[in-house]
Amino acid sequence: MAVGKVTFSKAEREKLAEVLWLLNWISVVTGVTLFALGLFLKVEIQKWAEVMSEQGTLYVPHMLITTGLAACCINYLGGKICLDCADTNKFLRWKLVMMPYIICTFFFTSCVLAGALMCYSIRSQLEESLFLGLRNAMRYYKDTDTPGRCYLKRTVDMLQIQFQCCGNTGYRDWFQIQWISTRYLDMTSSAVVDRLRSNVEGQYLMDGVPFSCCSTFSPRPCIQQQLSNRTAHIHYDQQSQQQNLWRRGCRQALLDHYTGIMESIGLTVLLIWLFELLVLTGVRYLQTAMENVLRLGDPDLESDGWILENSLAEMARSNFNIIKNLGKCYQVDDDPNINIPTAAAEREVSSRQVQVPVTG
Amino acid sequence: MVVMKMKFPFEKRVKLAQGLWLLSWCATVAGATTFTLGCVLKTELRRRAEVMDNTDVHIVPNTLMIVGLASLGINYFASKICQDALDAGRFPRWKNFLKPYFAVSCFFTVLMLLAVIMSYAMKGSLESSLKVGLRNGIRFYKDTDTPGRCFQKQNIDRLQMEFQCCGNNDFRDWFEVQWISNRYLDFSTKEVKDRVKSNVDGRYLVDGVPFSCCNPSSPRPCIQYKLTNNSAHYNYEYQTEELNIYLRGCREALVNYYMSLMNTIGAGVLSIFILQGSVLVSLRFLQTAMEAVAGKENTEIETEGYLLEKGVKDTIMEVRSTVWDVVYSQMSPSF
């Protein structure tokens, strides 16, 4: 009732060992690829880390980096083991290590799968992080004299120029915050004072955007001020308005950018996971085949290899029994001296039995 | 009067042939690298072709590409020759091939050196080409509705943002040109009418620059218009303001960029030239050493190798007379 039973002749076992040695070395290369992908993702996220609110998104590249390093070590060891497995004498050296190695590799392979799935699931968290981060960045745009925030203006400008976007959701986000510092506002001018008084918080709000929102595709010089007032600019029709500034919001632009990167990385990691699974299956077959050959005694005979010795249900049952019996370890059921009455105890029992009929 | 005579015992010849074989394969890779460097330079020059008036400077990458391809062929033959060099029976079949081969190889190797020298010499030509190209670009900035010029605005904007520069020599070039099209000017307002009347050609000139001149590193929002008017903006002095717009001119920025690119490429090509030269010199020594072996019974004798049989002047005169004879014999059947 073994799961996936395959019979291996001696030549087939040796061929399997050779093939697995090669596959393990290829897996070392894919492990390096995984490490490189993790590093690349980390660098990309760090590039725009200032417009993200918390660094919760960094666990994905860290996961990829650690699994990449683990892949290199595990598959390097696997390569060594498989090379020795072709010969039954050398296999004896690794016999005790094989089972823990296979269990380790199984857990590591599931980590790789988890890493791949994380790449796809991080989108909503990233969106939230970008929304908050961009909102703060735009709020502190004017604070070029505050330590810790003095480069935020430059970052936001470069972001809007590079990703061809404006604002958080759209260019109107700039209308709702004061992005011109009071250092550059003439407080003696009545126009400025009127504007400051016109809203509750005393902020200098205007229907204008920074220069970095200007689209290079527009046929006319950029209109940055009085954007809501159609009559302020000549021939400012619908098409002019569409082409004047970048239409996309920076949150959407960055989300698309990172989702694209992570989807390709996720796909590559999935392929690597499938490959690792293949290698793991091969190693398991090799291990069981070699153990069976040793049990048979003659290294030239055919032996069986399998994935699981019994079916899944039986294995679950036997494991459950083991766990159940672990709890009974202090109950010595098979102690031969229990329940066998001693001579003194027998006499006491018989005297008690004699007394009972007298009273009854 | 033999130039650079050296003795070559048998083992030294063998070592020379083996070393040369390896060297010629390295030189083949180097030749491919030269070709790639030429392609890279050409791509970079073509990317900014809209702001260059002429393509004179393209002679540098073109030469590099030709030399790269030629050196692939030269080094391939070099490796084949030195493979046959150790076999005294096979070597004589190269006899007639070697003289023209050396002539062609020397020509292309010298051409490689010329390419490097040209990349420094073409700086002036590049600069004048950029001067005219940028001047036209700035002049036609507003003509986004004229076919053939509609992308000038986009190109100039992208150029200024990417190279962090403004204008041709500096930002004042924008003051002398009407860069806002008449389609977007309200001729009913007094201000526009005054400005248009204020100069001879009836152009709308402003002391302002396009948004692409704005420097993102400036601590204050960009001031684009009324740049020379200190009172138009609060707390602003245009003489001392350095961070508001880019102060560098685009011509200077582009020339620096291309010269640094050509310097890097020139350094690489120079080292490849030295490698190629050493391959040819070693091959010449091998050839002359093996020629002395030809016809002898014992192929393991010590022979002498040299660079030139006669002195430099005599060789040049001999080459010249050979070339004359060839040209004369080509021309005479036509009579």
Automatic annotation (TrEMBL), chain A:
Membrane topology of this protein: Multi-pass membrane protein
GO biological process: visual perception
Subcellular location: Membrane
Keyword Phosphoprotein on entry: no
GO cellular component: plasma membrane
UniProt keywords, alphabetically: Membrane, Transmembrane, Transmembrane helix
Entry keyword Transmembrane helix: yes
Family: Belongs to the PRPH2/ROM1 family.
Name of the featured protein: Photoreceptor outer segment membrane glycoprotein 2-like
Automatic annotation (TrEMBL), chain B:
Record has GTP-binding as a keyword: no
Keywords linked to the UniProt accession: Membrane, Transmembrane, Transmembrane helix
Any single Gene Ontology cellular-component annotation: plasma membrane
Listed InterPro entries: Peripherin/rom-1 (IPR000830), Peripherin/rom-1_CS (IPR018498), Peripherin_LEL (IPR042026), Tetraspanin/Peripherin (IPR018499), Tetraspanin_EC2_sf (IPR008952)
Keyword Transmembrane: yes
Main location: membrane
Compartment(s) of residence: Membrane
Bilayer-spanning residue ranges: 59-79, 100-122, 265-286
GO biological process, one term: visual perception
Pfam family name, one: Tetraspanin
Membrane-protein topology: Multi-pass membrane protein
Family: Belongs to the PRPH2/ROM1 family.
Listed name of the protein: Rod outer segment membrane protein 1a
